[in-house]
Write a sequence for this structure.
């Protein structure tokens, strides 16, 4: 199982995928907001979204799992 982790602490500003979505390598899946900057988080691999573990507005720390893929 592959995962997308938070690369820094911040708030989840926008979730761009839903369970069952197919994603391509390089596709943005979550946008974090930190220090008034928007930081897009992309996947490094193709796959299918198995579970979204965060909600918009959640605070995440570096290394937290945000999305899991099959």
């Amino acid at each position: 199982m592959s995962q997308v982790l938070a690369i820094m602490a911040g708030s989840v500003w926008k979730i761009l995928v839903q369970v069952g979505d197919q994603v391509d390598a390089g596709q943005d899946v979550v946008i974090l907001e930190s220090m008034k900057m928007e930081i897009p988080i992309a996947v490094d691999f193709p796959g299918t979204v198995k579970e979204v573990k965060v909600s918009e507005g959640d605070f995440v720390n570096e290394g937290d799992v945000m999305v899991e893929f099959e």
Observations:
- The longest strand covers residues 28-34.
- The radius of gyration is 11 Å.
- The chain has a mean pLDDT of 96.
- DSSP finds no helices and eight strands in the chain.
